[in-house]
Amino acid sequence: MGKLEELIEAASEAIINSTLTLALTGAGISVESGIPDFRSAGGLWSKFDPAEYATIEAFRSDPEKVWKMLTEMDKVVSAARPNPAHIALGELERMGYLHYIITQNIDNLHQEGGSRNVIEYHGNSSTLSCLWCGKNYRASDKRDTIPPRCDCGKILKPDVVFFGEPIPADALNRSFQLASSAQVLMVIGTSAVVSPANTIPTIAKQNRAKIIEINMERTHLSDTITDIFLQGKAGEIVPALVQAVKRKGGGSPLM
Ligand code: NAD
Ligand code: ZN
């Protein structure tokens, strides 16, 4: 067995022996679906600097400008399909070995990949709200005009968390609670630098969870709190890990 296979075996063992397993996912899990992360060279984020376009101040002061970025992002996201990593996590949940996904992504690909217990830490782009009168709309009902406008005339904002906005209270509280009692946390495709999502691995570790990290590159977690680092593409590693759980656990979890 190669080193990676041994590590995958060890990770599958930890998952089988855990009664509460979480996955924290970031932009990296959707890269193989065609949505670039913040770090990839080229693509969306080299054209639109998130520091300039993805802040709530930018939206309030010039929503038309921010919608130039949102329109391009919407094109990329609506063309994306779940990749083998999303699908394998859906399967792991159905097998009873994955209890919740906490995702920083707004692309809906976990749900499309068959996952049900998904906590959207940074919201979802499929609904829009008016910052001025509070009315909500489905994005699909507002596709005909860009930027989409509220009945009150103001430009609508997608229900994703911009830099400078608070995390939805429900997602924040549930994530904190779950991280405090998890036995295994899989950290997949996130650089874990965006706060406060990056506190989740630390909270879990302090409560003695095993940290399994899956990433193409090492992160600041890899040398500090990660117990098992599985280096590679999420679309390859996650299915391999789920296969290992299947072989060993035979689809019957502890509870
Ligand atoms: P990030 O861009 O900071 O980091 C992505 C991480 O994924 C990096 O560590 C990179 O090495 C890793 N990675 C890249 N491709 C990978 C692959 N194929 N397999 C495994 N790992 C891979 O992303 P972040 O930590 O999620 O923070 C960025 C913020 O922007 C988050 O809030 C994120 O949700 C948001 N964002 C979301 C999307 C989306 O919804 N798909 C896309 C871009 C950014
Ligand atoms: Zn309005």
Descriptive overview:
The protein contains ten helices and nine strands. The chain has helices spanning 3-16, 44-47, 50-53, 56-61, 63-79, 84-94, 109-112, 169-181, 199-206, 234-249; strands at residues 21-25, 100-103, 118-120, 123-129, 136-138, 157-160, 184-188, 210-215, 228-231. It has a six-stranded parallel beta sheet, with helices on both faces. A three-stranded antiparallel beta sheet has the order 5-4-6, with no helix packed on it. Strand 2, helix 7 and strand 3 (118-120) form a beta-alpha-beta unit. Helix 8 (169-181) packs parallel to helix 9 (199-206). The structure holds nicotinamide-adenine-dinucleotide (NAD) and zinc ion (ZN). Nicotinamide-adenine-dinucleotide binds at residues 26-28, 30-32, 35, 37-39, 104-107, 122, 189-191, 193-194, 215-217, 219, 233-234.
Brief account:
It contains ten helices and nine strands. The chain is of the alpha/beta class. The mean pLDDT is about 95.
List keywords for this structure.
255 residues; alpha/beta; six-stranded parallel β-sheet; three-stranded antiparallel β-sheet; 10 helices; 16% strand; binds nicotinamide-adenine-dinucleotide; binds zinc ion
Distance between the termini: 30 Å
Stretches where pLDDT is under 50 for at least 5 consecutive residues are none
The secondary structure category is alpha/beta
Strand content: 15-25%
User: Multimeric state of these chains?
Assistant: single chain
What is the N-to-C order of secondary-structure elements (H for helix, E for strand)?
HEHHHHHEHEEEEHEHEEH
